[in-house]
Amino acid sequence: MGLSADGDDGRDSINHPIPFTLLRENLMTLSRTIFRALTLAFAMGAVVVSGAFAQGGLGTGSIFIFPGNNLACGGSLVNTIEIPGLGVFTTVTSGTPTFQTIGNTYSPNGTFMTPGNFLGLGSNPVLGAVTWMYDFSRPTTTSSVIANQLASDFPATGDLYFYITGTLGAFPGQTFRSQQEIHIRQAFLTSFNPASNMTVSLVNGPIFFEDVNAPGIPVFTLLGLDVTLNGNGGGGGDVTPLE
Question: Which DSSP category does 174 fall into?
């Protein structure tokens, strides 16, 4: 078949292969379009995540708080103590226990924590001034607040673990520490971040206390412990980034 004057061999141009340079330009244009779309989507996602992180969670009342935050809740502790030869006593102390949120490998349907800071102050007519503090000399089990179901945040179960040290006015110059790790639990939480009337109770009592300078010899026994948390002193949750 001969060529026409314009060089066409007479076949339909749709059967002609696309020139390589044109194909390359089209692919490059498509790649740039996809890259711009992905970049925009990533930026929008980053804005949403950073906004949630700045709030310390996914909103007030959410069971999930991002790692790297300090959760503070005003609270009161009701302790039942048995001292051989003296009897059984109830002490009430108040303070603001804090927990530091940490990463986890489970799901966002919960918050995982380690003890932060705590100083509980109270008194008893017989025992005198009473103080309690976290004891960081031993590693603790990870504390958590986890939803009891997948469909919603609440009800949830809170498990808090810590060691404590304490002083009693009736034993001047002595500091005591719990021989066992303390585990307190509430299996039907209805609020968190902030907690509202969240009462967690001793699970693994009795807890024996020893003099830090004479380990191994129990001095008194913690028979019961109920901790009631009410946000930040009753004024709402206090979630702040760790410094």
Answer: -
Number of residues that make up the chain: 243
Report yes or no on 98 lying in a domain: yes
pLDDT tens for residues 132-181?
999 999 999 999 999 998 888 888 999 999 999 999 999 999 999 999 99
Residue 51 resides in a domain: no
Separation CA 217–CA 4 (nearest Å): 110
Q: What is the pTM of this model?
A: 0.72
**Domain span at 134:** 69-241
The identity of residue 174, as a single letter, is Q
Q: With b meaning 16 or more CB within 10 Å and e meaning fewer, what string describes 221-242?
A: bbbbbbbbbbbbeeebbbbeee
Q: Report whether 69 contacts 240 (CB < 8 A).
A: yes
Residues 6+ apart with CB under 8 A from 115: 97, 98, 99, 100, 134, 136, 140, 143, 161, 162
Report how far residue 235's alpha carbon sits from residue 194's, in angstroms, rounded to the nearest whole number: 9
Q: What DSSP string describes 188-200?
A: EE---SS-SSEEE
d(CA 84, CA 78): 20
* pLDDT tens for each residue of 173-224: 999 999 999 999 999 988 877 667 778 999 999 999 999 999 999 999 999 9
Q: 3-state DSSP: the chain helix, strand, coil percent, rounded to 5?
A: 15, 45, 40
Q: Is residue 229 part of a domain?
A: yes
Distance CA(110)–CA(107), nearest Å, equals 7
Residue 187 lies in a domain: yes
Check which CATH number belongs to the domain holding 169 and give it: 2.40.160
Please state whether beta strands 143-147 and 176-178 pair in parallel, antiparallel, or not at all (unpaired). Answer: unpaired
Structural domain count of the chain: 1
